Amino acid sequence: MGDMVVVRKEGLYCVPGDFYIDPWRPVDRAVITHAHGDHARWGHSHYLASSKSVNILKSRLGADINIEGLDYGKRVVHNGVTISLHPAGHVLGSSQIRMEHEGEIWVASGDYKVEPDATCEPFEPVRCHSFITESTFGLPIYRWDARRTSMTTSTAGGARMRKRAAPASCTPMPSARPSGCCPAWIRRSARSSATARSSRSTASTATAASTCRRPSWSARPTRPT
Ligand SMILES: [Zn+2]
Predict the structure, then answer these.
(1) Domain count across the chain
(2) CA distance 189 to 171
(3) Is the pTM of the predicted complex or chain greater than 0.85?
(4) Are residues 146 and 90 in the same domain?
(5) Which sign, positive or negative, has the C-alpha torsion 192, 187, 14, 42?
(6) Is residue 81 part of a domain?
(7) Are residues 105 and 11 in the same domain?
(8) Which of 61, 82, 188, 207 would you call most buried, defined as having the most Cβ atoms within 10 angstroms of its Cβ?
(9) CA angle, 223 as apex, 220 and 225 as ends, to 5°?
(10) 116, 145, 168 — which closes off a domain?
(11) Is residue 214 part of a domain?
């Protein structure tokens, strides 16, 4: 089996599911990780996002967008790919996209953080075979203070915080970004990712994907087992 998710000019594309994840060009079907502007673009024919993102996305993109909300952990099957959304801990409604097809499980993270955040549900480790991680600031050259420290510093003076965050004295590590990946996305083997250390019970609940090919995102919703 080839890669379940590949990079196309429109964005990350789920091959068997025939949908995109956070595409940057208009497409027929887009699964949106969260409502920030670099992930949620206008012009897609169908949107799927977490239920908590729906009103934010409508506010940003227009109340008339064709969007379906999916609660965390609920499943929908589209073109044989079981899709479910799981908290990413980034902002309200932010999601990791879990895709399962013929026993293979991939997760695309979107932006995420593992520190507590009172504004959204905490990051949920999701066991998978392949993990696609957002990594804009994931290179080891970046050294970020703990969030609480950053917030304190920010209120004391934004300029001081910016100076502290600049990694001027660090050396980039070219090997940290594998070839063939979109710059903002890195695919990791689950065995080396944090998700590999997550609960095995999550994967053990995986079921064989349906062959349903009805057009709606809600083609065959199932409850997680
Ligand atoms: Zn974001």
Answers:
(1) 2
(2) 25
(3) no
(4) no
(5) positive
(6) yes
(7) yes
(8) 82
(9) 130
(10) 168
(11) no
In this structure, what token pair is assigned to residue 38? 């670099």
Highest mean pLDDT among 21-35, 124-138, 151-165: 21-35
Position 224 in a domain: no
Distance 13 CA to ligand 1 centre (A): 19
CB atoms within 10 A of CB 41: 20
CA 223–ligand 1 middle distance (angstroms): 28
Distance 212 CA to ligand 1 centre (A): 32
Q: pLDDT of 100-156, one tens digit each?
A: 999 999 999 999 998 899 999 999 999 999 999 987 777 778 887 776 666 665 555
CA of 91 to the centre of ligand 1 (A): 7
Q: Give me ligand 1 centre to Cα 112, in Å.
A: 8
Cα of 215 vs centre of ligand 1, distance in Å, is 29
What is the domain range of residue 186?
5-131+177-204
Does some domain include residue 225? no
Query: Can you give the pLDDT at residue 166?
Result: 37
State the CATH number of the domain containing residue 104. Answer: 3.60.15
Is pLDDT at 85 greater than 60 in this prediction? Answer: yes
Q: What is the mean pLDDT of the chain?
A: 76
Q: Do both 61 and 110 map to the same domain?
A: yes
What residues have a C-beta under 5 A from ligand 1, the ion? 36, 111
- Residue in 20, 38, 14 with CA at minimum distance from that of residue 184: 38
Alpha carbon of 210 to ligand 1 centroid (Å): 31
